[in-house]
Backbone:
């Protein structure tokens, strides 16, 4: 998935024809930018270090465990919150397990963390066993079991050869499974001995690992699943035969071999996937039978109590989705439901939520118009009723649990796309009328809220951020009574952003004015853009507006617009960008910008710059190429410059298949527009990016150079798509961005 903009990582600059542009308002900025805030912002990882992360409620509901780093050191430790006393304490540090040794991540684990957008070191995750008394912790390629009662940590004997990833408890807590190399293994805790569940996995044909597009685009980071009775494991075989191999080289280290990656592109071969089931004690694999040529994407797998093994599979166009139930003895599958869409189907954040008391399963599906709703379906997949109608705009089912008389469905969503709230729906009957108002809001403050729940609905942890406050996590009991806050030791920002969010015309917009704003002056404008699907940029969250506020304080007014194609506004709004990446998002950004300029006279519409990263980088470059009359300068970070060079699952979802959609791909490409550049453009890209490859910027640079156009290009050696790991780089690059726009847009007048 294309990551939102937050530029970082400076290392090497090369400038091609850096002649002064005729449009430059002031070739020499009057004063250097103050980077003191940027330094603090970068060193604290955007003020996230020291805040609780990844809270999980223990199975008995008595404690909440979470990860937290120190305010100035990006190493995550394990902490415990006691629900009875409201007190917290440190349980375990990575240093105590490493015994003074350095953290050593394999290339495979680094790539996995990249897909999961994890930048801190230490404990990346932790896992309760069924009782909650023992914790499984991966660290530096090793596995440890931590006994909470005694404080004793035991390293598991996992064998040698190949990276160790994705560890999981068996449901009965007697075994631990993981992938080592390219096969699935199990350790029996009673004997601390390892057993191979699969054999013969290779880099070309892996067992138990999620392929690249599953991790990057489907948010599926696992390739194997325990049976509820702990006797079997279902696993994915990913056959990469015929898939293109791409290489990521480090230009600063020509003595080192490039990293290899299977990277499927539009119109090219995809990974061939199938799922098998095998006994943990050893048996022949039973391969599940579905038409994996017609439905080649394995989107999700779920295997839990009260339920069969279920699979979600998609066709390559992603216009059809099947939910299948599998017979693990015969391998036969049965269709439980099918969804279709003329554009594409969004994958839900969760699979079917089976519930013994309610019967059948809860499903975040689509109504007849393609709008998301929460449904109850019986064991055969037949729709019983609608629990949460589309008018409430649900976007995720967080928890389903039952008490003696009631079943509760906890979901996230809301009708205001700048906010996200958590709701609890209660039902006693399978015949609740569609649209009945039977929902309780668990969050109320204007902002972005997320939640994790205990096994039976409580306690639960709500993590919230607003325009006035950075994220904080509060623990509540099942009745919604606060039990305490997970303690933070984070440094707080020096200011509260001066941001105003409002709907103007059809668009939700944000405007950030400088702290010393003078209403008598005209300010150059920076359009901070993302604009791509699946991501909302204009949200009521303080963390999103810290760097825009700093930019504004350098003499600009920063604005943002959420265009068609963004979520939270319904199917028609979201699907408007289908096969129109190059035009519709940019048209809306221009319309929204004009509405802002018409309403606020302090915005100088004749001096507008545009800045973005990833899809936002594509939008920034697209802006100066297609609309130079609007945008007078651009900084484009990690831009996709030609959609035939991005991955299949993302690109084909929105652009269609090749060769039948070749014209749409050509229309969205930036390369044919290179000859038209007549505005200042700074291209920024990490050379180690394995999401949007550096090839994109090189191809646009080459096209611009051969067309005789002036531009600047900043290469970031060794930097990936997740550019936030180097504080010096983040500080320097934002400073360069501000200086670039001062040079070409001038100062307030």
Residues:
């Amino acid at each position: 998935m294309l990551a939102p903009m937050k530029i970082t990582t400076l290392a090497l600059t090369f400038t091609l024809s850096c002649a002064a542009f005729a449009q430059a308002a002031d070739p020499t900025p009057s004063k250097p930018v103050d980077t003191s805030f940027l330094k603090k912002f970068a060193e604290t990882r955007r003020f996230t270090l020291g805040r609780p992360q990844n809270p999980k409620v223990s199975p008995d509901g008595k404690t909440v465990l979470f990860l937290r780093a120190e305010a100035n050191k990006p190493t995550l430790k394990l902490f415990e919150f006691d629900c009875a006393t409201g007190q917290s304490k440190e349980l375990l540090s990575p240093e105590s397990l490493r015994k003074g040794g350095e953290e050593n991540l394999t290339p495979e684990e680094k790539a996995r963390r990249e897909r999961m957008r994890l930048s801190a070191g230490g404990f990346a995750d932790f896992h309760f066993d069924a009782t909650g008394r023992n914790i499984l912790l991966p660290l530096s390629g090793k596995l440890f079991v931590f006994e909470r009662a005694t404080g004793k940590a035991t390293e598991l004997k996992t064998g040698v050869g190949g990276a160790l990833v994705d560890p999981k408890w068996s449901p009965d807590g007697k075994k631990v499974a993981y992938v080592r190399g390219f096969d699935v293994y199990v350790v029996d805790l009673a004997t601390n001995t390892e057993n191979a569940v699969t054999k013969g996995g290779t880099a070309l044909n892996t067992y138990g690992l999620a392929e690249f597009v599953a991790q990057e685009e489907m948010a599926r980071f696992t390739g194997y699943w325990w049976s509820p009775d702990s006797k079997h494991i279902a696993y994915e075989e990913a056959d990469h035969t015929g898939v293109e191999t791409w290489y990521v080289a480090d230009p600063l280290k020509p003595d080192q071999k490039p990293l290899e990656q299977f990277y499927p592109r539009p119109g090219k071969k995809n990974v061939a996937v199938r799922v098998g089931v095998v006994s943990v004690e050893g048996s022949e694999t039973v391969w599940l039978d579905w038409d994996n040529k017609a439905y080649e994407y394995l989107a999700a797998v779920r295997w839990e109590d009260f339920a069969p093994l279920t699979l979600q599979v998609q066709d390559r166009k992603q216009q059809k989705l099947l939910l299948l139930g599998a017979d693990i003895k015969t391998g036969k599958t049965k269709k439980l439901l099918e969804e279709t869409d003329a554009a594409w189907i969004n994958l839900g954040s969760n699979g079917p939520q089976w519930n013994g008391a309610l019967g059948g399963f809860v499903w975040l599906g689509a109504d007849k118009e393609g709008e998301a709703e929460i449904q109850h379906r019986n064991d055969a997949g037949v729709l019983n009723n609608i629990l949460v109608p589309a008018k409430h705009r649900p976007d995720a089912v967080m928890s389903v649990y039952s008490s003696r008389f009631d079943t509760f469905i906890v979901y996230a969503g809301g009708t205001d796309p700048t906010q996200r709230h958590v709701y609890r729906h209660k039902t006693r009957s399978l015949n609740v009328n569609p649209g009945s108002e039977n929902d309780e809001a668990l969050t109320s403050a204007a902002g972005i809220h997320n939640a994790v729940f205990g096994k039976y609905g409580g306690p639960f942890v709500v993590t919230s951020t607003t325009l006035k406050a950075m994220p904080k996590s509060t623990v509540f009991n099942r009745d919604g009574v606060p039990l305490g806050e997970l303690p933070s030791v984070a440094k707080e920002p020096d200011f509260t952003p001066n941001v105003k969010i409002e709907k103007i015309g059809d668009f939700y917009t944000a405007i950030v004015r400088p702290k010393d704003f003078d209403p008598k002056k005209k300010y150059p404008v920076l359009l901070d853009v993302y604009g791509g699907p699946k991501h909302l940029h204009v949200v009521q969250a303080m963390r999103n507006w810290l760097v825009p506020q700093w930019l504004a304080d350098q003499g600009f007014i920063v604005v943002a617009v959420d265009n068609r194609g963004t979520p939270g506004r319904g199917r028609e709004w979201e699907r408007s960008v289908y096969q129109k990446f190059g035009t519709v998002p940019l048209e809306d950004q221009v319309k929204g910008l004009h509405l802002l300029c018409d309403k606020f006279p302090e915005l100088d519409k004749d001096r507008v710059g545009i800045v973005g990263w990833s899809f936002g980088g594509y939008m920034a470059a697209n802006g100066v190429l297609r609309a130079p009359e609007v945008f007078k300068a651009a900084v484009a970070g990690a831009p996709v410059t030609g959609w035939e060079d991005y991955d299949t699952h993302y690109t084909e979802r929105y652009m269609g298949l090749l060769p039948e959609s070749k014209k749409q791909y050509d229309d969205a490409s930036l390369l044919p527009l290179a000859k038209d550049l007549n505005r200042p453009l700074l291209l920024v890209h990490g050379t180690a990016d394995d999401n949007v490859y550096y090839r994109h910027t090189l191809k646009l640079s080459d096209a611009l150079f051969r067309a005789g156009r002036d531009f600047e290009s900043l290469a970031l050696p060794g930097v990936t798509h997740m550019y936030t790991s180097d504080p010096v780089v983040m500080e320097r690059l934002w400073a360069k961005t501000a200086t670039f726009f001062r040079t070409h847009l001038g100062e307030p007048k």
Q: What stands out?
A: The mean pLDDT is 91. The CA atoms of residues 220 and 310 lie 15 Å apart.
